[in-house]
Amino acid sequence: MARLTPFERITLSVQAQIPIVRALERELGKEKAHALVRAALDEANRKMVAQRGSLLDIPTLKAEFAGFGEGVRYEFETVEETETLLRNEVTHCDYAEFMESIGARDLGQLLICDGDFAMADELGLKLERTKTCMAGDGHCNFCYHVKTQKTAP
Length: 153
Hints:
Layout: H1 6-28, H2 30-50, H3 58-67, E1 74-81, E2 85-93, H4 94-101, H5 108-113, H6 115-122, E3 125-128, E4 140-146
Antiparallel strand pairs: 1-2, 2-4, 3-4
């Protein structure tokens, strides 16, 4: 069986989630539905990345960030990198174009972008991001910080 690219895996999953989210929106209202979906997706994402069994360092994060765009147009530039920080600026994201093409760009933040925060946290990173292509900002400003590990007294 052929291995799916991250883009294929994510877009297949999102297409299955959209009708469920739309039904929840009708039943519960948008705010409550989105809060419920976000909590469920965050829990699932945390479990998925916890299976790695290790935290991410910056060199590994940098390599994996690049792999996220495998097979699609995903343009970004690393604007700052230290041992404890990685700042990337994404200038083109096919994920946003995909959500637009299926008429669900309004769910892109919820179903794709916002999952980055829980996954980063589970991997020992703090993500700061105030702009996304999905939201129409023209770019995504990712800034990952390695969380300091507390040692026992």
